[in-house]
Every structure is written in C-alpha cells, then in structure tokens.
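step: validate -> pass
step: tokenize input -> pass
step: predict -> running
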Amino acid sequence: MALILENIAKHVSLTPEEQAHFLSKTETHFYKAKTILLNAGNVCKESYFINSGIIRSFNINDNIVEHVLSFSCQGWWISDMYSLITQKPGQLFIEVLEDSEVVVLSKENQEQLYFDIPKLERFFRILTENSLVANQQRLMDNLSLSAEERFEKFCTKYPTLIQKVPQKQIASFIGVTPEFFSKMKARLLKSKL
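step: predict -> pass
step: emit ->
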C-alpha cells in the first residue's frame, strides 16, 4: 500500500490516521491478463490504482475497430472519467493487459472520503485536472504531429511498454493502422542504424 500513499503524498499530506482511514476504504485485487474491469455501456463505479501490471482503456467503434484511449502502468490511476463523474453509461472498456495488482476505490467510498478527509477532494481534483491536460495535449498532438512524432512521444511517455504491449494496440493509440505502424517502425529503426 506504500505506492498509493506515495502517489497521494505528491499532492497532499495525510496524517497516519488519515492514511489508515483512506486505506480502509480501498480493496486490493489481483487480476489476470485479459480481465475486463469495465464494459462499454456500463456505469463506472470505481477508480483503479495500479500497484503492478498494465491496464488499458479503449472503445470499439461501429466498424469493430478498437481505439486505445490510454495505457496505465505502475503508479498510475485509470477509470472511465466521463462515466465515473456523471454516473451515466460509459463508452470505454477497461482491460488488464498483464497480470496486475490493483487498488480499487469505489465512487461511493471516494465521495465519503471527500467528507471525512477534505484534502482528498483536492487530491482527486488535481488528478482530474492532470487528466484533462493530458487528454487535451493528446488531442492537439493527433491534430498537429506526424505519426512518427506521435510514436516518439509515446516512447518517451511509456518507455517500458514498447516491448510489453502488442504493436496493434500501440498503433491504435497513436492513430495509425497496424500495417502503417509496422512499416513506420521498420523505417525508424533503419534510419537509426
């Protein structure tokens, strides 16, 4: 549980009693790869903090094409923010990509923690703001950067995922077809030799 408390401590300071109370409102689960934590069309009732492993969020369009929205690895949070905040059915799937240890915080317990420990409301506001900034930057990158530049940014942001995540999912994340991605990657490797 030290990792999640370190994550919180980056933004707010909790007393030992507040830390214990926070932890009492969470559950730790172990999930096998390919476990679906949330299906599109369901209301998201939880946030997930990754102690170990990799989780992704994605949606599937009408043509049955996957679009990867995000990857989350150790020390990161993931959820369907739209559905969690509005409590309306979401459009995202959340899937475990490799065996993972995850701290689960229910929406109900999160709301109770805001009342019990008001500074946690500030913590989650900061997480939401950071998520909004990252999503806006990703949108701007998709509009203005080449596929090669988007791949380089991906490599910088997620250096450990290059070997762990299927290439088709990386292609989806940067907004290209798997075929284009394979050719682009080969071309980039050749130019670095």
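step: describe -> DSSP finds eight helices and six strands in the chain.
step: cleanup -> pass
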